[in-house]
Amino acid sequence: MPKVKVDGVEIDVPNGATVLQACELAGKEIPRFCYHERLSIAGNCRMCLVEVKPGPPKPQASCALPASEGQEIRTDSEMVKKAREGVMEFLLINHPLDCPICDQGGECDLQDQSVAYGRGASRYDENKRAVTEKYMGPLIKTTMTRCIHCTRCVRFSEEIAGVDEIGALYRGENMQITTYLEHAAKHEMSANVIDLCPVGALTSRPYAFEARPWELKKTLGIDVSDATGANIRIDARGREVLRVLPRNNDDVNEEWISDKARYMVDGLTKRRLDKPFLRRDGKLVAVSWNEAFAAIATLNPGNSIAAVAGDMVDCETMFAAKKLVGALGSKLIEGRQTGMDYATDSLAAVNFNTTFSGIETADAILIAGSNVRWEAPLLNVRLRKAVKRGAKVFLIGPEWETTFGGEFLGEDLSVLGNLPQNVADVLSNAKRPAVILGGAALGRGGLEAGLALAAQFNLVRDLEDGTKWNGFNVLHMAAARMGGLMLGYAQKGGIADLVAAKPKVLLALGADEVDFTQFAGSMIVYIGHHGDKGAHAADVILPASAYTEKAGTYVNTEGRVQWSDKAVFAPGDAREDWTILRALADAFGVTVGFDTFDQLRNAMIEEVPALGSEGLADYGSVLPLGGGSAAGQIAYPIKDFYMTNPIARASAVMQRCSAELLHGEEIAEAAE
Amino acid sequence: MADRYIEPDTPELRARWGNFAWTAENAEKAKDVVSRYPAGRQRSAVMPLLDLAQRQVGAELNTQGWLPIPVMEYIAAYLDMPVIRVVEVASFYTMYNIAPIGRFHVQVCGTTPCMLRGSDDLLETCKSRGMKKGHISEDGLWSFTEVECMGNCASAPMVQINDDNYEDLTSARLNAVLDALARGETPKAGTQDPARHTVEPVGEPTNLAAMITENHDYRSEW
């Protein structure tokens, strides 16, 4: 713990800290462009210059200088002020200063810091350099003349994403940042470079020229595009969500989000269900709410009703539906739309117990049946970190392009029960072994075989430092899954139990992946927000709210309870889901015990107390004994990363990504 | 340097260079180069290998050689590293030609010592012979570029043509060299000043004169 003096105040800094970090600990703001906490140190923008004694009598780049005992650091001296002004003047020499037409305006580091630390005018009157724009794909818009060569994007793609595709060509004044041969950036986290870019060189293409940051209402939300529950900020103007940005949460998403989470929001305004619809003579016709309710009520289903929850619904919606179905005397609720029927007696057995930040410290990881890059891009980033720390990774399933190496052991589930000797050795010798079962490995005895491995390799253990380690993980893909399981959305036989019961009414809560032909005799009431597969099969459509349009509780695959707020109102006649279910209760003439959202939430927390506190729910660490044998070819359920949910399928941006990045279509640039 | 550009990746380029592979001799050399670095650090060999590839291309084209995109991709695959990292290196150093060059690649140094000793005349001479920055002359013989210091300041001004330096140039001496090259001769490399053997002082030494005959301790005279 070196002691340093920052502007005359003595502080202790952790070992290995840099001078910049020491200054931050002392509460001093150090301007910077190239330095970023989550990237390696480059030290090439020179904006963080401070005066350090002992040392050469000149300003030093604080980001790359280790703090050591007895340093006297000044951030407020005349030398530092002049140095910052000088660096800023140099940076602005070739910067176009086109802030009025730049999308970064208002949230630009260069803008802010030139106001705070610049000298106000330039002495440079030569021609500025100009750089041609580079094509980086459908998501990233480039204006490379604005680039100040901080290389954050280069370091991100190399270190975090693990897909080396951005680089700095040429040198000196002619340095240019580009992707290889201007190919589109092809990974699931590519748009994070937009947030990293401290200037307006890399901006968001779908959001180009849409709004200024100060016009936007910012709402804290949770992403539902996968089960990682990334923390997001929803930026809306009026009734439209214009963009989604990540929030910092070291436990979940650090400060990244996937491209799908970021860019599927334009789908929120397309293919929306904004009126109730009723199927008459085989055709869906728009009706009033009363007509729709009357049509359902006249069927008088009694207890012949079931509910199936979609992948993106919040816990409140599921709870309200559970109460409604329960009030009618039925217990048929299910969330695993595609027919999975793994046992859910112990939630610890279907949870990501190690946690995302924990998996970084694992030293041997066996992944079965999961294309992590597509099923949970944020977890892929963590796995890459684990491998960088020396973890060994083995994978079971068809090969996919990992960003962290790893050894593929085979494509069949039977490998789970018959691991090669070297893999078994690595897992049994590891201090922190972990097994991750993806969706494709849960059925056909996979979960039980995985649990058997947990027992065999003693995945639940006390570590030497006294902390607990639970290395058994299930990686879900649906944002609603863990919440649904906590609320009991699981039948013993899965959705087949619902089919067998032949309910008169089937409530489909945003359920779009169900094979509705199984429910040919039922009246399908679709309560959701997009005209997708579920709505096509529905007999009654009750328009509801998407995740940005309602407050809700979500539980991610780690069992982490998180709350999301309402950013905008649902379009047209659409209502929040719980109000629809409450009104349905009236139509059926039953009581469900809540009239307001607060009452609903309180009732839910009373029934499942874990949903009442933010953070990891405790499922205990006792895993059921597995056993049995698993067999069957593994097939990953996600065929197209950009098209996994109705919002993404409606999104023009996601459609273009899918066509261009996955299916290799040439998309002609519209003349601008 | 401002004229540097990467030769665009066209189907014709792919067709011409897509099958690039080491010759038997160069394959041996490449193996040897890679073996100089610790296992797993094979990408450290990228610079010597780029040079080797450039020379192999040059041997095929009878020039100094250049690096087409498919060749850089070959190197990247050979060293198991991302292509963009190879392109970064190749585009950084001017000794790697990233666009086609002529039979003789004329690099005129324009940095201060050469400029003071008359490199402007040399640039003019080249220009008058039809050379243009970043272009190959129509007969395919000449390509021309202005470079920064080549480290021959003691015999400035200088020009590098392919692997040889020609120093102590004047407009006339440069013309003589270029003419000789055009005729297919190999002019003497190094200084073109008949009075000079290498970079020894011209005429009587003016500095450290007391050191000419014997060792002399100047320290007491400072």
Automatic annotation (TrEMBL), chain B:
Key words of the record: 2Fe-2S, Iron, Iron-sulfur, Metal-binding, NAD, Translocase
Matches recorded under Pfam families: 2Fe-2S_thioredx
Catalysed reactions listed for this entry: a quinone + NADH + 5 H(+)(in) = a quinol + NAD(+) + 4 H(+)(out)
Binding locations of [2Fe-2S] cluster: C109, C114, C149, C153
Record bears the keyword NAD: yes
Gene3D superfamilies documented for this protein: Glutaredoxin, NADH-quinone oxidoreductase subunit E
Bound cofactor: record note: Binds 1 [2Fe-2S] cluster.
Any one annotated GO CC term: organelle envelope
Keyword NAD listed: yes
GO molecular function, one term: active transmembrane transporter activity
Protein known as: NAD(P)H-dependent oxidoreductase subunit E
